[in-house]
Write a structure and sequence with these properties.
Layout lengths: L1 E5 L6 H10 L3 E5 L6 H4 L5 E3 L7 H16 L3 E3 L2 H4 L5 H11 L6 E4 L2 H10 L4 E4 L9 E4 L2 H11 L9 H13 L5 H12 L16 E5 L6 E8 L2 E8 L13 E2 L7 H14 L3 E8 L6 E7 L13 E3 L4 E2 L7 H18 L1
Parallel strand pairs: 1-2, 1-3, 3-4
Antiparallel strand pairs: 5-8, 6-7, 6-8, 9-10, 9-12, 10-11, 10-14, 12-13, 14-15
Helix pairs in contact: 6-7, 8-9
């Protein structure tokens, strides 16, 4: 067995390479942006790439490369079922509806007239989102029809930039004041705002030509984030920012197992099974009055807190395990199982 790993420092590849070293698994660290990438991975059984939503080169071709290799018979991570809807909330809307996942109701419009007509018939607030983005940076609350129309006008006009560094800088500043962040992170986002060419952000297209709204679900001021791979889950409660409805990206996460109800773990694994993915991060909200759980959105990958792997993990039987683990290793284990299965099938 030999696994090709897209070697991008600071990404999951650091963990995957370490796993291969620890378990004596042959691997090849490669540059995914080389034009002869197909030839480079030809002698490998699998290809793994932690591609990112904010990297313009990744957005251009990561999915196409992965799915091409998968169609040619190679095991990849993320595979098609796991990755096609990454950073695509519009795609997730259709997927959740088609699979019968209990998710927050959403609406998408591809012309201004249809959006305006819907605004006149619905109630508010509603959550307005761009199809891409993370950390709540591209999420806004339409508290009235007037606000919703303003969002729609811009969506079908000059559109929205793909990132919101000033919002992220504000979040990091609030975290710094609470002793939970670094001035470096504040400065980083301010620099990205002032100099968008630093990370190639100016090469990403603006969001325009569609309007996406999601039902606002009243809750107790937090959501649940569960990150699942290889039938194991990391679970946490994410508190909303002070005076805000958004939890994602706020970095006020609580890993206390007593805060994770049994039905949340069960619901997360039900979604995981329906999606049939190698790995998934699920954002889940409980409706305040009914107590019903709703899936908000998903991602194949997620940011890692410094102490992410120090609070134990859950299994689908509802048991919480406090033994040492590395959640990113679970993705490698999924790939190894798939390679072994494919070899057995061709033996």
């Amino acid at each position: 067995m030999k696994i090709a790993i897209a070697n991008c420092k600071g990404s999951y590849s650091d963990h995957w390479i370490e796993y291969c070293k620890e378990h004596n698994i042959a691997y090849k660290a490669i540059n995914p942006y080389d034009t002869d990438i197909i030839e480079q991975v030809s002698d490998c059984d699998a290809f793994m790439w932690h591609h990112l939503h904010w990297h313009y080169r990744d957005v251009l071709f990561a999915k196409q490369l992965l799915f091409s290799l998968e169609q040619a018979g190679k095991v990849v991570f993320p595979n098609f079922r796991t990755g096609w809807h990454f950073d695509d909330k519009v795609g997730q809307k259709y997927l959740f509806e088609a699979l019968g996942v209990q998710a927050a109701k959403s609406w998408v419009f591809y012309d201004k007239k249809s959006a305006y007509e819907w605004i006149e018939t619905t109630d508010f607030p509603k959550v307005f989102k761009l199809r891409g983005g993370a950390g709540s940076a591209n999420v806004r609350l339409a508290r009235s029809a007037k606000q919703a129309r303003r969002f729609v006008r811009k969506a079908f006009g000059r559109g929205y930039p793909p990132s919101n560094p000033l919002f992220s800088a504000k979040t990091q500043w609030q975290n710094f004041l609470k002793g939970k962040g670094r001035l470096y992170d504040v400065a980083k986002y301010i620099a990205l705002y002032l100099f968008p060419k630093l990370k190639g952000g100016h090469l990403l297209p603006r969001h325009k030509g569609y309007a996406y709204f999601q039902e606002f679900i009243p809750n107790e001021g937090f959501d649940y984030r569960l990150e699942i791979a290889n039938n194991k889950a990391i679970a946490m409660v994410r508190m909303c920012r002070e005076g805000d409805f958004r939890a994602s990206g706020g970095h006020d996460d609580r890993y206390d197992a007593s805060l994770i109800p049994q039905d949340v773990v069960e619901f997360a694994f039900e979604c995981y099974d329906k999606l049939e993915v190698q790995s998934v991060a699920l954002d889940i909200v409980r409706e305040k009055e009914s107590g019903e759980l709703y899936l908000i959105e998903v991602s194949y990958c997620y940011g890692l807190d410094e102490d992410e792997f120090e609070h134990g993990y859950w299994t689908r039987d509802g048991e919480h395990h406090r033994e040492p683990f590395n959640g990113v290793y679970w993705m490698m284990e999924e790939v190894i199982k798939a390679v072994s299965y494919s070899k057995e099938g061709t033996a």
